[in-house]
Design a protein that fits this description.
324 residues, alpha/beta, Rossmann fold, seven-stranded parallel β-sheet, three-stranded mixed β-sheet, 10 helices
Length: 324
């Protein structure tokens, strides 16, 4: 198997490449912007292709699978979301067609943010009308539409996933650091529900898609079917770390103030913040319920890891790496 992976130096992409190398004995080609900063790919037996989504180098013509993982979840300017997540996706597909690449499948990793939150308390299905609430979600939806323009050219599968956690992830790290200090940060107004996904279960979904004969353009939700509040998520982490937690409830106006302050700091440092007003729009939604019956039906998908097991494994890795 030969595979092309974009976004391979990131959290999800690097886990995917590990899986392709260790479990599939694949020959992996990774599109990398900076060959001096390979991050988790350093030392791996990979063909590194220097370039980006707008500058795709010459590719082998016999690539079997393309995994488009590259994208941004945080940005200093809202326009950056659209530049990478929408226009970058279009550029990649245009280049694949121009180079006459004929893969068995192309995967585009999207987000439940593209579909939007649950408005009526029912889990959101793939064929529900999208209603993204953030610029990030809108950019991922537009990225899906760019990819779908090529569904007659390539066998295309779009995976929508929510918040992904696991070893190497840095987005959940500040939350876990707070829990380690014995502090559980909670929203004061009301409980808010989410579906999350452990990294290994997400990677398994790609494997299942490879094995199945799917209609080109299929959109599939992937998540842990058990919804959770951030308070519950934090309490499980607290138990794993042996911490008694003091719950500090943050009213909405403080969250908005924090987002403004962090955006200001990002403007000064020219580095995007993990928390901003755009992300706050998503956080303030009452429920992010995801319907995974399609994944169960088409892929026989079910998580291999419970929420407790995934959190425990993640925290152990953080501790081993000195991150916690």
């Amino acid at each position: 198997m030969k595979a092309l992976v974009t976004g391979g130096t990131g959290f999800i992409g690097s886990h995917l490449i590990n899986h392709l190398l260790d479990e599939k004995n694949a020959e992996v080609y990774a599109l990398v912007r900076n060959l001096e900063n390979l991050k988790w790919l350093k030392g791996m037996d990979i063909h590194f292709l220097n370039g980006n989504l707008f500058s795709i180098p010459s590719l082998p013509t016999n690539i079997d699978y393309v995994f488009h993982i590259a994208g941004i979840t945080k940005a200093r300017k809202l326009a950056d979301y659209y530049s990478v997540n929408q226009h970058g996706t279009a550029s990649l597909f245009q280049s694949l067609r121009a180079q006459n690449i004929e893969p068995k499948k192309i995967f585009f990793l999207s987000s439940t943010a593209a579909a939007g939150p649950s408005l009526d308390g029912n889990p959101v299905k793939e064929d529900d009308k999208p209603h993204p609430v953030s610029a990030y979600g809108k950019s991922k939806l537009l990225g899906e539409r760019e990819a779908l323009k090529f569904k007659k050219d390539f066998p295309l599968v779009i995976i929508r996933v929510g918040a992904v956690y696991g070893p190497r992830d840095e987005d959940f790290l500040p939350y876990f650091k707070s829990v380690k200090k014995g502090i559980l940060l909670s929203q004061a107004s009301q409980e808010r529900w989410y579906h999350v996904c452990y990294i290994k279960d997400l990677i398994n979904s790609f494997d299942l898609c490879i094995q199945k004969d799917l209609t080109s353009g299929e959109i599939i939700n992937i998540a842990d079917p058990h919804h959770v509040t951030w308070d519950e998520f934090g309490k499980i982490a607290g138990e794993a770390l042996g911490k008694k937690l003091l719950t500090i409830r943050c009213p909405s106006f403080l969250l908005k103030l924090a987002a403004l302050v962090l955006e200001g700091a990002a403007a000064i440092t020219n580095k995007p913040s993990n928390f901003n007003r755009d992300k706050l729009k998503a956080i303030m939604q009452t429920s992010w319920f995801t319907d995974i019956t399609k994944a169960e039906r088409l892929l026989s998908f079910s998580p291999h890891f419970s929420l407790k097991e995934g959190i425990q494994e993640t925290l152990m890795w953080y501790v081993d790496q000195g991150w916690l």
